[in-house]
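User: If you would, consider this record:
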Amino acid sequence: MADPLLLDGSVAFQSFALDPRLQRSIAKLNYSNPTLVQAKVIPLALAGKDIFARARTGSGKTAAYCIPIVQKILEEKEAGNVDRGVRALILVPTRELAEQAAKFLGILLAYCGKSIHSVNIASNISEQAQKFALFPKLDLTSRHLLIDLPDIVVATPSRIIPHLNSSNLSIKSTLAYLVIDEADLVLSYGYEDDVKAVAHVIPRGIQTFLMSATLTKEVEELKSLVCRSPVFLRLEEDEESAKLAQYFVKCKEDEKFLLLYVILKLKLVKGKIIIFVNNIDRSYRVKLFLEQFAIKSCVLNSELPVNSRIHVVEEFNKGIYDVIIASDEKEIAAGDDDDMEEDEIIPKVVTEAPDEDVIERTEVAESQSKNKRKKLRKSQEYSISRGIDFQNVACVLNFDLPTSTKSYVHRIGRTARAGKAGMALSFVVPREELGKHKACSFESAKKDEKVLAKIKEDQVSKKTELKPYIFNMSQVEVFRYRLEDALRAVTRSAVREARAKEIRQEILSSEKLKRHFEDNPEDLQHLRHDKPMHTARTQNHLKHVPDYLLPKGGKIAKEIGHVSFKKSSDNRIRKARKFNKRKGKGRGKRDPLKHFK
């Protein structure tokens, strides 16, 4: 029987001859037909090939490696020729991605009963608690096995190493599949040593999957370390890229805030939007600025607890929030080698013999540098701006331009996913406009023009185009006085206070309220992440846009809950009394002077 094909010639999921339990799970996910990366990877994976796939973010890479791994483990268990133990290890760069992969695996295994068991050890629990998750569970009365050893383990490199070193997890004799998802991010987050340590422990001849959105020298080195003559798939989805419109706007530092206000308040973007900034303080500054105009938004950054970040993404995907302000500060902190200054990479040569004081200062500096790198590496696990599965995003707005083309690729990958159209808009500050508005300045803007040139060059190589978007500034300028009022209210102390308040609030919400809302789902409103901070000076006149400021023929959709300054209608009885009073009816005597003919 020939493989079932769709009308456009693409292959359907039924052509892969998957286990019926797996097919039911795929149907539950509402997957109609595989994406390009899934159609190419799944048949090769089922044939036992090592795979090195480069595909854009949001193209369905998680399903591309999870489906064949689950299928092959099911086949092995049916045949009864497999030892108990971990069969697959999936390494990802962040906890959020681990949670995402574990959740997807949970859906895939929904109809597999106790045949396959997966565990996520990247969650925010102690190493001792993770240790118990990696051991079989016994019924103490009957001594029967309740839960076997996990077949699939999801982890970050830093989480898996302690378990391998302490023998909590043994993979030498049982491991058959290794996945390194978002390989470029795994390496850029400083996990290179951990990945190499894992590579030395894994058995020879296992099947490996390397998934990446970008191709770097480090990823090439990793390929030679863990793969045996892999099939290289460079998947450029022309239709997908055509559905992503990319624009940039050259503007002054304060005009970023002005254009953002106009875009959101005049509803120029229809649908959900992610605003990327390069700093945590910056995210709160933008949120407080938008609050001045009664525009609700959520902040998403690496300081917030893991549960809070995951909850924000889930609620955003459900459509509860429309605007997320995500900070990409780890990209700025880590940087790219090609963007670093030469003296940051190469130590200065000392020609004369240093004295003891110089040696001591050098040792202190080296110690501080090591601590800084260690702290940075630890914090990378909390990154939120890349790799997360944001759904139905209409626009990605780079309020602050990223510092590398790689980060730009990951950011714009949040939109135009799964065959849907999307737009990416980036604000670029020209060099001659730098430092003219201190309250709005940000250090990374110095590289904007240089990075923009690199991004354009990269997009041309991918046969896409980054186009200039021209705003009619004469129509935008009428809103400037409102911008100045709002910016004056968003002070440094207000930003500091908002940041501290948000962290305190989210820590309480993520731990204490989590259990409460499981029993009281009707109280879920208390977990909203877009509530006003109330730390800045509020100015009620900024919340509504007067008609005379609008462009000719322009309208703003009425917001739910809008309250005007003047009552639109009176009480029926009060209105009748006023009418009768004017006519001289009702209680009291008529004034003859008012009705003299």
In short: The mean pLDDT is 77. The longest strand covers residues 244-250. Residues 263 and 269 are 6 Å apart (CA to CA). Residues 492-519 form the longest helix (28 residues).
